[in-house]
Each structure stands twice: as C-alpha cells, then as structure tokens.
Amino acid sequence: MNMREKILTIAGSLFDTRGIQASGVDTIIVEAGIAKATLYKHFPSKNQLIMAYLRDKSDKFYAWLNTQLASKKAESIEMLIMLCELVEQWITTPEFHGLPFHIASVEFPDPQHPINQYSVVLSAELQAYLSALAERAGAKDPQALGQQLTILFEGAALVERLTPHSGAATRAKHAAVTLIRNAT
Questions:
Q1: Does the predicted TM-score (pTM) go above 0.85?
Q2: What pLDDT digit, counting tens, does each position of 103-123 carry?
Q3: Residue 153 three-state SS
Q4: Which SUPFAM superfamilies does the record associate with it (predicted)?
C-alpha cells in the first residue's frame, strides 16, 4: 500500500467510526504515523482528503456491484433483482456505516460548501448508475425506475443506519422488486 492509500484508509476508518468533522487532521496524522507535510503532500486540504474518501468509497461500491452483476445477463430483469439482493446484503453488513455522501452532506449542510456539492454529485451518480442498469434491462422508463430505486435504497440505508436490523433493507428490496416487475 502506498502512502496515499495508507492515509486514505486510515482517514476513511476514522471518518466511518468517529465522523468526518470529528476526525481532525492532527488525529489522522497521529493514527497514520506521518508528518503533517506528508499528509498535505498527498491531500493539499482536508476537503480534498474528504472528497478522495467519498470517491474511493463510491468506486469500491460500484466495482463490487459490477463484479457481482457480471454473472447475470446484462439485459434482463434478473440482473435488476440481483441488484436489489446485493444492496440489501451491503446495507445489512456489520461494516455498513451509512452512505458516506449522506453523512458528508449532513456534516457539511451549507449547499455552497464543496463537500456538500460533491455529495450531491455522488447522489446523482448513484441515480444515473441505477437508471443505466434499468435501461439495459429494458425498463419502459429507465430514468423513473432509476430514481425510484435510488429513493428506496438511500432510504433503506438511512433507516438501517439509524436502526440496525430494522428490516428496512429487506422491505426496500421487496418494494424495489415490485417496481422492477411493473417497469419492465
């Protein structure tokens, strides 16, 4: 693991467990065992570190989904149903701490703040990803289905974060499957 990845991994762990705002640069430096100059060499500001963390989390999520979905026929309803099962699985793992871009937007509520703006971009990216899958699967209105799935998945993620083991992820999966069957 190179130094940039090490810093990102340690910062990410702190952000996930303590919160973004509560994990100051000094704490990250101590936990990483590095000099402040090393951190700033790789991430010129904490905002850039946070955005790199958010991007990394999103990229890993999409890579995992794409790997899992690769076994399903790309233009089929089965792929979308598998997606629902995967999202339920992901949300209910012990490692799940909520959607990072949700947490970031709450911790940086000013719509003009770069972290809040980047969170909006990542939310739109999720919806675009789901819409693209819906289109590949032959949905009548892939944009609408993508938005509906986004609402269900983001809502389930929030409820499960606040009330673990509430069944929200399973209920969202069942609702999503119903929507998918009606939309294809």
A1: yes
A2: 999 999 999 999 999 999 999
A3: helix
A4: Homeodomain-like, Tetracyclin repressor-like, C-terminal domain
